[in-house]
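#struct-help
A.M.: can someone run this one for me? Single chain, 451 residues.
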Amino acid sequence: MEPASRPQPAVSRPFEVTHGLVLSIAVPMTLGFLTTPLLGLTDTAVVGRLGQAEALAGLAIGAILFDLIYGSLSFFRTATTGLAAQAFGRADERELQAVFWRATLSALSLGALMLALAPVILWAAPDLMTDDRSVQAVVRDYFAIRVISSPATFLNYAILGFVFGRGQPKFGLALQILLNGTNILLSIILGLWLGWGVAGVAWGTAAAEVLAAAVGLALVIRRFSPGSRPTKADLLDRYKLKQLFQLNADILIRSLVLNGAFALLTKVGSSFGAVTLAANAVLMNIFMLSSFFLDGLAGAAEQLSGRAVGANYRPSFRRAIKLTAVWSFAMAGVLAAFFLLFGQPIIQLLTTSPEVREIAIAYLPWAAMTGLAGALAFQMDGVFIGATWSREMRNMMLMSFAAYCLALLTLVPAYANHGLWAALNLFLLMRGVFLAAMVPRKTAQSFIAAQ
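D.P.: on it. C-alpha cells below:
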C-alpha cells in the first residue's frame, strides 16, 4: 500500500474562540484531574485503617510503581487528543474514527506487552524499591492484581484523549468520575468492609478500569456514523501510523526528561539532609496541586489549537493561544496568592514534624511561585501537542533540561536549597519561553492559504 500524502485542507473552516469556549473545556478537564488525588487519599485511608505498617508501605510502593509505568506511557491520551482535534477541525468524520481505532489498537497492543513483561517487573521491581520482605510481598500481591487490567488502563487513555480532542470535555469528565468513583467505592467495599486489605484495593482499581473502558468504548462507538466508517486501508495508512508513532515517541521522551528533572531535584535535595529533603517533598505537593489546575487549561489549548490547525483557520489559532494564556496566567496568579496566604496551614496539615514545618515554611515562596513560573510551559505544551509539533516540543524540553542542569551546577553551590528551588523555577520558565519563541515560525508552516 502506498503511503498517503499529508492531508491539506482546501478551505478554511472558521470557528469562534471565546472565553466561554475555553472555560467550557478547561473546567470539566480540571474537575476530572482533581478526582485522581481523591482516589489516592481513599486507598491510603482504607489500608491505613488496617493498622499494618507493611501493608501501607506496600501500597505506597506499588502505587508509585504503577505511577512510574503508566505515567510514562500516558502519551496515548495527549497524542490522541491532538490528532482527534485536527480531524474534528477538518470535519473529517472518517479520519476521526480512524484516529480512534488506531489509538485503540495501539493501546491494546501496549496492554498486551505490559502483561508479557509483568513477570519480569514482578520479579525485579519490589527488590529494587525496598529491602523489607513483608513489604515486598505486599507489593507483589498488589502488582499481580492491578497489572491484569493494563489493556483497559491504556484503552481508557485512548478514549479520554479522543473525547477531549473531539471537544466533549463533559463526556470525559463523566468517564473520569465513573472510573475514579467506582474505584473509590470498590476499594472501600473490598478493602475495608470485606477485609481484603491491599488486595481489595487492587481488585477495586482493576475492576474500575475495566468498567470505565467498556462503558467509554460503547458510548464512543455508539456516536459514530456508520457511513463514515474507515476502511482497512485508512487504518493502516503508513503516513498516519508513522505520524502516530512519532508523536507518541516525542511525547514519551518529553515526559521521561520531565520526570528526570524532578528526580534530579530529589537527588540534589537529599544532599541537604533528611529534614530538608522531607520539607522539599511537602512543598512539591503545592506544585502538584497547581499543575492539576493548569493541566485543565493546557487541555483547552490542546483541543482548540488542534482544531484550528485542522480547520486551517489561523485567526482561531491565535485567539486560542491568547485566551488560554490569559486564563493560565490568571489561574497561576490566584494559586500563587492562595499558597502564599494559606501555605503555612497546608504545610502543618501535611506534616507534624516541627523541624520539617520550619524549613518548609522558609522555602514556601519558591514553591508558591512554581505555578506562575510554569504557566506558560503548561499552556505551550497544550498548543504544541494540539498542533502536533511534537519534535519541537521534545527538542525544547531537552534544551531546557540542559539549562536546568547548568542552573543546578551554578546556583546550588552558592545558595544551597534556595538555589535548588530557583533552578526548578527557571526550568519551568525556560520551557515556556523556549516553546513560545518557536510559535511564529511553526504557525507560518502549519497554515496554508485557503482556496
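A.M.: thanks! The radius of gyration is 22 Å.
D.P.: also worth noting: Confidence is low (pLDDT under 50) at residues 1-5.
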